[in-house]
Design goal:
The chain is α/β, with parallel strands linked by helices. It folds into two domains: 15-118, no CATH class; 143-368, no CATH class. The chain is 45% helix and 16% strand. Strands 1-2-3-5-4 form a five-stranded mixed β-sheet. Strands 6-7-8-11-12 form a five-stranded mixed β-sheet. It has a two-stranded antiparallel ribbon with strand order 9-10. The N and C termini lie far apart (101 Å).
Length: 373
């Protein structure tokens, strides 16, 4: 019986190649894969709602990848050097439900945040939120302010100081800062209570680090230790980024730290031992950071997405209380000693509290000021 040659049926690959000109030249020819039956949402030219934005994001993230639309799987795996990103129909549906009337930037932001929620180990939330004009006006009310979450309050606390310094009284009055004012007042009470207790230096270091962006206006970000690989070089455990892109180095001592000692032979005052040690320590930090500024700039850009030139930073020592300076000679010498320091400021705890109270008064004045047209 003669052998019959059986015809082999090659299985058609499950993908559509991007040929839509609206996707741009960089995405042309990329494949959108799918499992099972071809989704109705994919057109023959490879266009699909949010497809361009998803492909753009994956192209930036991975050198080699496959985007696969799955029936019910959301996963990211790597096989033979190719990252396979599976998105379920349900995930795409969540995007589609919110896409109407959105601009391109909002779509990119929505894609980024949805991927971050679904694949938290591989994607992070968008670094900056997208603002839609009149969005705040539509949601801000006294009822909303009374129900703000702690994260919302913290965001307002960071936002309002710079806004107040750049906007008119009328604009600030429209914003209504009740939530921030109450939060600041609560912080004053909390600090006053802590100052009455004998807290350890480590406790105060943790406390000030967690509250400094609220306590001291002008800072926009707190930075952890700069782990630049330089042998036998010490860096501060904590530094701050100012609104004009400079670095401040913070050294934190206890509120009970003595500030001055008296030279009995001459009747003058000089820095107490603990303050002198802190000044030398901060001077060394400033020198090391200045010396290795280019390396630190690279780390700030790679780790924190901050593009800045690291110049000679300023040092701030938080320690002691001015109230311990009882006579005028002490106060005068403290001022002379402080002014003689180069690039270093000694900031006392009661001065921190005074600045915080003054800031609350400024906010309350702006809040109650009549609108100027």
């Amino acid at each position: 019986m003669p052998k019959t040659r059986q015809k082999r049926h090659r299985r058609q690959p499950n993908f559509v190649r991007v040929r839509n000109r609206g996707y741009g030249s960089k995405l042309q020819g990329l494949k959108i894969y799918y499992e099972g039956k071809k989704p109705k949402a994919i057109r023959n030219d490879g266009s699909i709602t949010f497809g361009k934005h998803i492909l753009e994001m994956l192209s930036r993230k991975y050198e080699r990848f496959r985007w696969i639309i799955s029936d019910d799987t959301d996963s990211i795996t790597t096989e033979r050097g190719i990252v396979r990103v599976r998105t379920s129909h349900a995930m795409l549906a969540r995007l589609n439900q919110r896409w109407f009337g959105r601009s391109r930037d909002l779509k990119n932001d929505l894609v980024g945040n949805t991927f971050a929620a679904t694949f938290p180990n591989d994607f992070q939330k968008s670094d900056s939120a997208v603002y839609v004009p009149d969005m705040l006006a539509s949601i801000l009310s006294q009822d909303v302010l009374s129900r703000l979450s702690s994260a919302d309050k913290e965001a307002l606390t960071k936002f309002l100081p710079e806004f107040i310094s750049s906007e008119s009284i009328a604009s600030v009055n429209l914003l209504k800062a009740e939530a921030q004012i109450q939060s600041l007042k609560d912080l004053v009470v909390d600090m006053e209570k802590a100052l009455e207790e004998n807290k350890s230096e480590s406790w105060w270091q943790t406390y000030i680090r967690s509250k400094i962006l609220i306590i001291q206006q002008g800072y926009i970000k707190a930075l952890d230790k700069m782990n630049v690989a330089v042998v036998e070089t010490k860096y501060p455990d904590f530094s701050l980024l100012t609104h004009d892109s400079y670095l401040d180095i913070l050294e934190i001592k206890r509120p009970s730290t003595p500030l001055l000692k008296k030279d009995e032979s001459r009747g003058n005052y000089y820095w107490d031992n603990e303050i002198s040690k802190a000044i030398i320590q901060v001077e060394n930090y400033i020198e090391n950071v200045s010396k290795h500024g280019p390396d630190i700039s690279i780390q700030l850009r790679d780790k924190h997405k901050i593009d800045m030139q690291v110049l000679r930073p300023r040092g701030i020592i938080v320690a002691g209380n001015r109230s311990t300076l009882v006579d005028q000679k002490q106060k005068d010498d403290f001022r002379l000693l402080s002014q003689s320091l180069k690039n270093i400021t000694v900031l006392t705890y009661d001065e921190l509290l005074t600045r915080l109270r003054n800031y609350i008064e400024v906010l309350e004045e702006f809040r109650s000021a009549p609108i100027q047209e």
